[in-house]
Amino acid sequence: MNCKTMKNTEFQLSVSELMCMRRTVLPKRLVLPGPDGNQLQALLAAAATGPDHDLLSPWRLVLIPDEHRQSLGQIFAEALRERETNISMERMSLCQEKAQRAPMLLLLIVDFEKGDQKIDLMERLISAGCALQNMLLLAT
């Protein structure tokens, strides 16, 4: 049975149960294997159904290949250094490790300039958050 063949009440119950069961899982607790190609496509399709004022699609998801994670970790550490002073080496190392924790790494990027500038920045951020929530609901 899938969403298209379920009766409306069955579908609503299924979604309700899914939403109530979802819990946060820290990236360091995720283990291999990550999503396969079909699962990734389903996650991206779920993200695309999130609310989107004026159909801007103000966000993008970028898959970070394993060979670029170390460079991204260095960027994370540099950004931390720019925001704060007197950072311990241990904290810098932990910051760099963030790019290595999960079996798959997707970055969610919000475009603040795309489309009608009358659409508030917060609406763009909320749209991205809704896309991410849809992915999390499907993934858990």
Q: Would you write up a description of this structure?
A:
By secondary structure, the protein is mainly α. The chain has a domain at 66-102. It is built from five helices and two strands; from the N terminus they run ααβααβα. The chain has a two-stranded antiparallel ribbon with strand order 1-2. The longest helix is centred in the last third of the chain and has 19 residues, at 121-139. The model has no long low-confidence stretch (mean pLDDT 83).
Tally of DSSP β-strands? 2
Tally the helices. Answer: 5
The gyration radius over C-alpha positions equals 18 Å
Intertermini distance? 18 Å
Structural class category: mainly alpha
Gross geometry = globular
Biggest sheet overview: 2 strands, antiparallel
Helix content class = 40-55%
Overall residue-averaged pLDDT value:
83
Approximately how much beta-strand content do the residues carry?
A: 5-15%
- Spans of at least 5 consecutive residues whose pLDDT stays below 50 are none
Please provide the ordered H/E string of secondary-structure elements: HHEHHEH
Query: How are the strands ordered across the major sheet?
Result: 1-2
Compile the SSE list and pairings.
Blueprint: H1 8-21, H2 37-48, E1 59-63, H3 69-83, H4 89-97, E2 106-110, H5 121-139
Antiparallel strand pairs: 1-2
